[in-house]
Design brief:
alpha/beta, 13 strands, binds pyridoxal-5'-phosphate
Amino acid sequence: MRKEFLPFTKPCVNEDDIRAVEAVLRSGWLTNGPQNQALEEGVCKLSGNTYGVALSSATAAMHLLTKVMKLGPGDEVVMPSMTWVSMVNMVVLAGATPVFCDIDRETMLATPETIRERITPRTRLIMPVHFAGSPVDIDGIKAVAGDIPVVEDAAHALGTMYKGRHVGRGTAIYSFHAIKNITTGEGGMLVTPDKELADAVRRWKFHGLGVDAFDRQNRGRSPQAEVIEPGFKYNLTDICAALGVSQLKRIDAINAARTDLAMLYREQLADVPEVRPLADPVGYDFKPAWHLFVARVDTPKIDRNAFMNELKLRNIGSGLHFRCAHLQKFYREAMNFRPGMLPATEYNSDHILSLPLFPGMTGDDVADVVAAIKDILK
Ligand SMILES: *Cc1c(COP(=O)(O)O)cnc(C)c1O
């Protein structure tokens, strides 16, 4: 058995990152400033998008999106229930209705077909998730969406390629939460080719003023800037952004290390039918960012929760991404959701776990995880 606990994830912070943050602390400018701008430009350059607005989280980006789109009562948002609940919460807090689509049972991705079934005349927004860093069929989804806006939840997908191009060419939301492929501690970004949307999000993120603190200080804009409409305070500090800028320089190496580890898992789990990894999407060329290594514990010998506990007893951490949203207390009670509505989502919600995957891991660590899995199933 392992001597040291192996967590399911660990941020990959190096000395360059620490120096970058230190430089901000010594610079005399701590809140959003040049590092925010560099992060916005870097993510746009990597992903081939035009405008980026760095924010305090992806959840904040979703909140602002509901405001800018004026989502409210009667409006429906089609999204998978297999997502992080914060995105669903923002829809509900806006007064709109989340309409959950199912996912493919083996890839855990929403598909054009599962989305099409949920579109009604009230659908105002479609939000698929590039789950675990594998891309949804965005062309197929845009085709069924027609005129309805599609915003990609790309929280798992920095570095994910779809048909030879980075995902998130339209409007998309990234997260830099501590467990994501690159991190700012907490942080996120909305990217878009739509200047009006970007300007509105930029305004809403900072009190609804036409300009933020950095603009006022450095670009000579009027310090008497007016409130155009009341907004929030969702800006990211430069202390955080500098960490992201530094990490972004290594995104290729970070994702390559994740990919190597994922391939080792796939190889070594090939003869363990009780713990089944996700399948690759078919029908289009893609390269995943490998944000998570998700597998399904599917055996009469032991259920998923007990299995996670047995791993822990063997000094191996694991995660659960995600417990489906529609069967959580609030959604069950307030919206009357019942088991059976979304069979593939519910199957996965009951059987998945995320095995340890982060760039600092070694091949020996993967072997330890697989040995522990085999020991549990013995
Ligand atoms: C992490 C995550 C989010 C939210 O990101 P925050 O930056 O923590 O707000 C949204 N969607 C998905 C799929 C996520 O995994």
